[in-house]
Structures are given as C-alpha cells and as structure tokens.
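Page 37, top half.
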Amino acid sequence: MQSFGHCVHLHGADGVLIENCYFTGALRPTNDIFKETVGRAVEYDFKIMYRGERPIPQDQMIPLTEDGVRSYGGDRNVRVVNTTVERMRGCFQLHCEGEVTLENVTVREAGDFAYDVSNGDQGPVILKNCKSDLAYNPIFNLTRGEVPTDAHYEIAVLSPREGIEPTERTSLGTICGLRSTFILRDGMTRPVPHEAYRLNCGGPHGLTQSLIRNYTKATLVLDKQVRDCRIESVGEVEDHGERNRVTQVVLRGD
C-alpha cells in the first residue's frame, strides 16, 4: 500500500467506507529493549534518536507499527463502522476537511493513543457507540489537530485485558473543543489505579461552550482554559476554569 507503516492511509480521499474490519499491530515492552546486548539500541546508548535525542523510557509499552487509520490532508467523508483496531500507534488519527463518522468502533491496547479525530470547523465529527480500553496509553489525544467544533464524541471506557498493567501514560487523555459534546460511558469490570482514571479537559486548545456527560467514576480535570461548559459527572470534578456549571450525577445502586 506504500502507507508509511500505517494500516490504512488516506491522502486526498473523498468518500471512504471502512466496515467490518479487524486491524491489529504489535507492541513491545520498553524494558525488553534494555536486555539487548547488540544492535541499534546498544549502539545509541539506549537513546531515542528521532526528533531529538532522549533516553528510551522504562516501564512503558511502545508500538512496532504506525497508525491504524490515518489521514494526511484533503480527506473528507470518512465513515468507519463495526471495526476494531488494536495495538497500533495512533489507532485513529483523522484530521480531515469534511465529515468523519465512527460508529460501533472499538480500540484495544493503543500503542500511543486511541482517538485523535478532529475537523476543526470544516465538517462534523461524530463518534457513536465507540469504545476503548484503558490499557497502556491515553484514550483521547485531541491536542494535534484543529479545535473540534460542534463535534460529538461518545466513548465507553473498558477495562484492559487480564494481565495488563497500567503505565505512567495510562489515562483517558486530553480533550478540547468548541460547542462540542463528550459522553463517557462506563464499561469497566474491575478497578484501575486512581491516577490512571482521569481525563484532562482543555489542554493546549481549551474547551468552550461544550457539554461533558461522564457516567464513569473517572476524575475530570477542568484546566483554566475550560469556560462556559456544562459538566454532568459521576466521578469527581476538579474545576480550575471559569463559569462552568458542574452537576454531580448519582447512578442507581451507588
């Protein structure tokens, strides 16, 4: 496919349907790298040489494949339905110029993040009945593209598979947006560490005039760039923003 290591690579596509697919990659514990006695890691003193020199981190899980579904510009009218992506770097990295819809999509064991989907104000983004487990890395990474505008994200947070240990990067990640809606549903079957069960709201781009409905017990951290938002949450809310309306939700049986 000449896809630069990505599983599905879009470049100037208009009208894309990905349906009933299962894409899987491979992950590797960084601690395994330090067991090597010959090879590039040893030659470079166990340092990452890409985009600056820095030590290889320990106790993390890194992808051996690139993104699952990736756009590179000029892409529009992308629809992904009934599809699972696992163990890819960015499982969905879609910065498009027209409508993007993900429906009944599941992410497992993301190698860097699960969802980075935004069109700015160039077309609607709709994530409906999507899922992601809370394994090694963040679920959301809305930090790289244009600020989502009038977007809709619905994600069920799942427990990781048995035997998976969270890393220091494990979290719900970072969201931003303008007049956007975020719905978090609880698909957890066992507890995870409190420090991993958090969602950063705002990030570098801010969150304004938006709605978050959090039906999980994850903590929402509203940073100073979160303004004029409505928050309905089962989990704790740390509000460092301005003019936000926070309502605590009590689920039946709690």
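Page 37, bottom half:
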Amino acid sequence: MEERIRILVVDDEEPIRDLFEEFLSDQGFSVVTAPDGETALRLMKEDSFDLLITDLEMPDIRGIDLLEKAKEMVDPPTTILITGYGTVETAVEAMKKGAYDYVLKPFKLNEILQIINRAVEKRKLEKENVRLRQTLSLYQMSEAMGTSLDLNRVIEMISDTILQEFNADLVVVVLQEETIKKAFEKWRVPSRFPPGSERIDFARIMETLLAEKVVLVHGEELTNYLIGQPPEDQMPETLMAVPLKVRDQVLGMMVVVSFARGRRFVEGERKALLILASRAAIAVENARLYRQLEEAFRETIEGLVFALEAKDRFTRGHSERVSQYAKIIAEGMGLPEEEVEKISQAARLHDIGKIGIKMEALLKEGKLTPEEYKMFQTHPEIGKRILEPIGFLQDIVPLIYHHHERYDGTGYPERKKGEEIPLGARILAVADSYDVMTSDRPYRKALSVEEAVEELRRNRGTQFDPHVVDVFIEELKKRGIYHHP
C-alpha cells in the first residue's frame, strides 16, 4: 500500500489552516498544520514532509526564509508559497529561492489542488530518478565487489556506497561466526553527529532478522533496538537492517542509520538494501573463504621454514625471533600497522630459500669455502622464485629478496645501496644479523647483547641503515634488554 503524501501547512490565520486541513484530508493527503515558522521548523526536524505550503508574510519567519531553512533538511519538501500581498518582485524572488509555485489570495481550492497534484507528480519523478541512479550505482558497486577477494576491501566498498546512496550517517556490517560477531563500522566523513553506535542493540536486531521480520523503524519504535536512552544528540532518527544471507546460512547483517532529524528510510530503500545485501553476502563469503585458504597456505609455507630450522638446533626458532625483532623496529619507526605486519610476515619467511641449498655445508664448523658461500648467496633468489607465483605474498617478495643487501652497496644479490634497498629489507637485515650474532652457531658461541649492539654500531652506514640501527638500539633499551648508553 502506497504511503499517503504528507503536507505541512503553515499560516498565521487559523481559518485558512483549518480550510486546508479539511479539504486536503478529504483528498487523501496526510495534513499537519503550524501557526508560525518556528513551529513549522520544529515539525520538519521531527518528521519528514513531501510538501510545504506556507504563507509568505508571518510574524516570526517569512515564508521565503522558511523555504530556505527547509532546503537545508536532509529530504527537503517541495514548497508552495501563498500570499495576499503579491508583487512581481516577490514572485520572482520566491521562484529563484526554489519555490515550486507562487499562489495569490484569494484562491480557488480546485486551483490549489491542481498545483499540489503537479507538485506531487514532480516529486515522484525526482524520487524515481534518485532511485534509478541509486540502483545503477548499487549495480556498479556489486559488479566491483565480485572482482575483489579482499574482505576488508569488500566491506569498505559496501559501506562507502551505502553512505552515499542512502544519505546515511552510519553503516555497520556485522559478520557472525558461531558465537563471535565482528562489526565493521563506518561513519560519514565528516560526520554530522557524534558517535552513538554503542547504544544500538545489534543482538536484538539480529534476533528480529533471524525471525524473518523486517527491521525498518523510526521515532518511538526505534527505541526497541536501543540499549538504554541515548543523549539527544546521539539518538538515531531512522534505522533499517537486512541479513547477509547465502543460501540458508545467515553470515551477518547490514545496519544503516541516519541521525538527521526528519529523515526516514522508506520501504523502497530497504528493498534496495536487501538486493545489495544478497550480492554482498556472496562477495563476503568468497572473500572469507579466500582469506581462510590464504591463511592455511601461509601457515603451510611457514611450517616448511620451521621444519627446515628444526633440523638444526642452532637455527631453531630463528625466523620467529627475527620476526619479533623486525616488528619491534617497525613499530619503533612509527610505521602503519599494515606495514608492520607485512615486515613481520616477511621476516618469518626470509629464509625460505634455504630449502634449495645443501644445509650440511651451513652446519659444519669453520668458515665456508668460496663455493659454499656462493651457494649460500643463492637463497634470496631461490626464496623469490618460490614466493613470486603466490599472489597474496607479492608485497613481501622484495623484502626477502633484498635482505642481504648492504647499505654501502656491497651486498647481494643486486648490490643496491642506501634507500634503493626497500625499507623492510633494511629492517630485516638488522633484525636477522642481531639474532645470528646473539645465537650459538657451529663455528662460534653467541655474542652478548652488548657485543652484538656494538657490532651493529660499528657497521651502521656500511652494512646497515644507520637510522634502523639507532631505532633498534633505542627499543632494546626501552625493553630493558640493553642497558648501556
């Protein structure tokens, strides 16, 4: 059933207000009246209206000023101005300000009705155009989603599109795994309202959706889905939610909220969101399965490295320790979390290439022969060849390939120098060397922390990036591992 058109009539003359209310109600419209502009503004902030019919001259706010303030609403009404003191100038001004029409008193009710019907048709066409643009945008976005297997990227695309196309303030995507729920929350930026999502009862919303009931609520009904009573400026105005469902399995839900006064999501928007959710659920499921496969594959590769190290009591746990040291350095340099994780992961796999060389040569006591040392130098190249075909490890390949380069350009495999060497590889070089120096080897006993740090200092600027060395030493001090100045 189509919702009735809502009309707000504003006039300081009570007989005119009563006349409009009776006549337009008989025509099937939902009519609310206000005696002045201030009351009208309050009503528009509390609720949404399709049409605003206002007197031009009123004691507090002129009709043209009310028109301008109404245009600031999230979903501004179509405005018709009425006056008994009409001039060509005021008519021109009204139309310039965005009034749909300008009517002189006295007027015939049938003439007013014709203007209202035309305004309603125009508004319907405008809303239909918005829905068409929205549908096109959602289709384009759903197509883009199908090309991505990155779960965070999929969620980001969903959230950005919903915020824009539904003129929303908040999107929360909840993924449900057994009893674990993970929420991805995104606000309009810049947000027009302070965060208030912690007041939303997501468990209650999920319960309603699982019972196959619709969640599309406003005003008082919305309090059924809130925890406690939020402050006035954190009180949602309208909320809709749909399940993320693949076949008969509910993966989670999408919750969309607006805090703008007078804004109300409509059933058409909920249905559009439901269509989007069906595509999003497939994309989320594919991305999640890909992430699980990716994690399993990564763990398998790391397992190979650990198995390699397990054959030698001197190198057992080496890669994991290098990973920890590399993470300490990266965090100490203030690198982004994503970059820290990438460097840490590269450290765990930095010796994967040793799978392709004869380990007995590395385990002997005494120095390597020139031939053995040349063989050892091939392990970054072998590691590169092993990892390059694996798409999700592409970012860490350069770090592993170049972690034996020297800052002065005398390292291998490509004799890169200074900042030509990827930062992550420069960090690995310090972390790797420190662990080698502080661990027992077949050909020597472990150095003390003080001796290892002194060796790092002695080689800063030649073998190692000076800044990386300085950060590492400072981090060792902070952790009470190194106590000297």
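Margin note: The longest helix spans residues 267-310.
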